[in-house]
UniProtKB/TrEMBL annotation:
Record domain Peptidase M20 dimerisation: where: 211-313
Residue ranges of the TM segments: none
Cofactors demanded by this protein: Zn(2+)
InterPro entries named in the record: ArgE/DapE_CS, Bact_exopeptidase_dim_dom, Peptidase_M20, Peptidase_M20_dimer, Peptidase_M20B
Name used for this protein in its record: Peptidase T
EC number assigned by the record: 3.4.11.4
NCBIfam families: peptidase-T, PRK05469.1, PRK13381.1
Classification via Pfam families: M20_dimer (PF07687), Peptidase_M20 (PF01546)
Organism per entry: Anaerococcus kampingae
The entry's keywords: Aminopeptidase, Hydrolase, Metal-binding, Metalloprotease, Protease, Zinc
Lineage: Bacteria, Bacillati, Bacillota, Tissierellia, Tissierellales
Amino acid sequence: MNEKIIKDKLVENFLKYLAIPSQSDDKNEIIPSSPGQWDLAKVLAADLEDLGLVDININNFGVVQARLPRRGDRSRSIGWVAHLDTVDVGLSDQIHPQIIKAYDGKDIKLNEEITFSSKDNPEVLSYIGDDIIFTDGTSVLGADNKAAIANIMTALWYLKENPEVDHCEIFIAFVPDEEIGLRGSRKIDFDKFNVDYAYTIDCCELGELVYETFNAASGTLKIKGVSAHPMSAKGNLVNPIMIAHDFISMLDRAKMPEHTENREGYIWVTDIKSDVLNLRLDFNIRNHDREKFEASKAYLYQITDLLKERYKKALIEIEISDVYDNIADSMNDENKVAVEKLREVFKCLDIEEKIIPMRGGTDGSFLSTKGIFTPNYFTGAHNFHSNKEFLPLDSFYKSFLVTLNLMQDDF
């Protein structure tokens, strides 16, 4: 295997897919939420056909699915899922990457106004001497998740170019709108994604391995008060803002995002909109532990009932809906081999594993609700969702090696 040729192909594919703007739009309820995701889906479908995959399809929601028949005697069927969208954090949807060759550890002028400081981003000093892909300071880099797409496509290219290499049956799903609530993964045709287990490649530095994510729910509290003129307000006015204040005051400040870490869950009030009569409060619930997750939901119902009793003239309603599950909840004795193989591959490639509980979710968090165990491994990038995002090429290459070894399924 020629490392330089592989790295060149990884970069070529990455830059090709970055050139297609595909930022998702959370204000648009249509899936996919942006036309660029359609454009990228069509390009990927054509590329998959060139690589010899079969059963290629783009459904009405922009989900690209395909299959590569097994070669040799590998018995497993394994899936890979990556998302088409890049995140909208108020930066440009046009991505103009730059490659810094043999990084020397100094600050980098991303553009005339923005400098990447090694003091503020000391993790970059671990990659002195490596080629690193940065942004131009006007956008995210989009390694989340186009590094994963390029990784998968390069591994499929390698298998095509090396017909003597046996591999398992491979299922691919490229999905839209992961960044705005895992919307696209819900639209996979699971009848055509018949896998023993699957993988996502969606996050972070060399060696990260994730098979535990949050259980997640979102909710809304709606309050309709009673309006009245101040001259006759006494005994009549019911202020929905003050009721919402009571609701928030009954939450534990120590169990909010700004005070929690690792496996600690939280309730997060994310938005309030109100006038003198109607109020809407939005919140998120997150916890790795299923019992604590359910207990948080039960507590919010309980305090809502208390408010209804306290403010009988008001109309108070609460709705809570599950968004995704902890990936670990779908792990069993049969499919835990997915993690065991990842760890074996890491060891074989001399990659130090960093097993972390993710304080968030991946597309695998939804797949777990369908009974598909879907652990996640690293892209190699840092500073996701930031114009300081960067991708060291050696880490990118090692992520590719992990993918290729998993596809060969000979461990």
